[in-house]
C-alpha cells in the first residue's frame, strides 16, 4: 500500500466559514465584516430562485446594492493590501476581479432585459453561481491567506477603511470602469453620487402613485444615461489589467 504524503511546509488554511468572530480578529476585523456581508448575501440568494415577479425584482435590487459597494471596497482597499502582502497576490486578486467583472456584466445585461425576457432565468442562475463562487474563493483562500500574513491590528485597520469605502461606494453595475486603482478610485465620487441619488429616487417612487412614480423613474433613467457618459472617460479605465474583461464561455442561449 502506498503511503500518502502530506506537505507540511504549507500551513493548512481554515475557511472564514469555520472560524468564530474572535478567531477572525473581533467585530472590527475586515474578515468578520466580510463574513457578515457574505451571510446576508447567502440568505438573499437562497430566496431568489422561484421568487414571484415583484419579489424577484426587489430581491435583485437588494442583492445588487449589497454586492456592488462590497466589491468596490474590496477592489479599492483589500486587494491592493493582499497584493502587497502575498507574493502570488497579483494572480489571486486577478481571478476574483474577473469574477466581479462577470457579475457586473451579467447584472448590466439583466437590467437591459424586461421581466418577461426568456433569457432572464438563465442570466439569474449564472449570476447566483458566480456570486457563490466568488464568496468561496474569498472565504476559503484569499482571506485566510491574508490572515496568515498580517496581524490583528492590520485586519482591524483594514476593516475600518473597507467599511468607510463600502458606505460611500457606487451601488450599481459599471462594466467598463477599471477594477483597480487609480481608475476605480477616480470613478468613486461621480458614480457614487449618481448611483445613490438614483437609489433614493427609486425608493421614493415605489411609495407613490403611477404618474409620480413614472416621473421619478424617468429621472432615475436620465441619471443612468449620465453615469454611462461619465464611465466613458479614459481616466476611469486606468490601472485595469488587459485580461480582466475576458470573453465569456457562457452566454444566454
Ligand atoms: Fe467579499
Ligand atoms: Fe467579492
From TrEMBL:
Transmembrane segments: none annotated. InterPro entries: Hemerythrin-like. Residues 34-146 form the Hemerythrin-like domain. Residues 205-224 are annotated as: Disordered. PANTHER family: HHE DOMAIN PROTEIN (AFU_ORTHOLOGUE AFUA_4G00730). This is Hemerythrin domain-containing protein. It comes from Mumia zhuanghuii. The lineage of its organism: Bacteria, Bacillati, Actinomycetota, Actinomycetes, Propionibacteriales.
Amino acid at each position: 500500500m502506498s503511503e500518502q504524503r502530506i506537505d507540511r511546509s504549507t500551513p493548512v488554511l481554515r475557511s472564514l466559514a469555520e472560524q468564530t468572530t474572535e478567531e477572525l480578529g473581533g467585530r472590527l476585523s475586515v474578515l468578520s465584516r466580510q463574513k457578515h456581508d457574505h451571510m446576508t448575501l447567502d440568505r438573499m440568494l437562497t430566496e431568489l430562485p422561484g421568487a414571484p415577479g415583484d419579489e424577484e425584482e426587489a430581491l435583485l435590487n437588494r442583492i445588487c446594492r449589497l454586492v456592488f459597494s462590497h466589491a468596490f471596497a474590496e477592489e479599492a482597499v483589500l486587494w491592493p493590501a493582499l497584493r502587497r502582502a502575498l507574493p502570488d497576490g497579483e494572480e489571486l486578486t486577478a481571478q476574483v476581479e474577473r469574477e466581479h467583472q462577470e457579475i457586473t456584466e451579467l447584472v448590466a445585461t439583466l437590467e437591459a432585459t424586461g421581466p418577461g425576457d426568456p433569457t432572464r432565468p438563465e442570466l439569474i442562475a449564472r449570476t447566483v453561481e458566480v456570486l457563490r463562487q466568488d464568496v468561496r474563493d474569498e472565504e476559503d483562500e484569499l482571506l485566510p491567506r491574508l490572515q496568515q500574513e498580517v496581524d490583528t491590528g492590520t485586519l482591524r485597520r483594514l476593516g475600518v477603511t473597507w467599511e468607510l469605502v463600502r458606505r460611500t461606494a457606487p451601488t450599481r453595475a459599471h462594466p467598463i470602469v477599471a477594477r483597480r486603482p487609480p481608475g476605480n478610485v477616480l470613478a468613486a465620487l461621480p458614480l457614487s453620487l449618481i448611483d445613490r441619488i438614483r437609489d433614493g429616487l427609486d425608493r421614493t417612487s415605489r411609495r407613490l402613485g403611477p404618474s409620480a412614480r413614472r416621473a421619478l423613474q424617468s429621472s432615475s433613467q436620465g441619471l443612468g444615461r449620465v453615469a454611462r457618459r461619465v464611465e466613458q472617460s479614459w481616466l476611469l479605465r486606468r490601472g485595469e489589467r488587459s485580461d480582466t474583461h475576458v470573453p465569456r464561455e457562457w452566454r444566454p442561449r
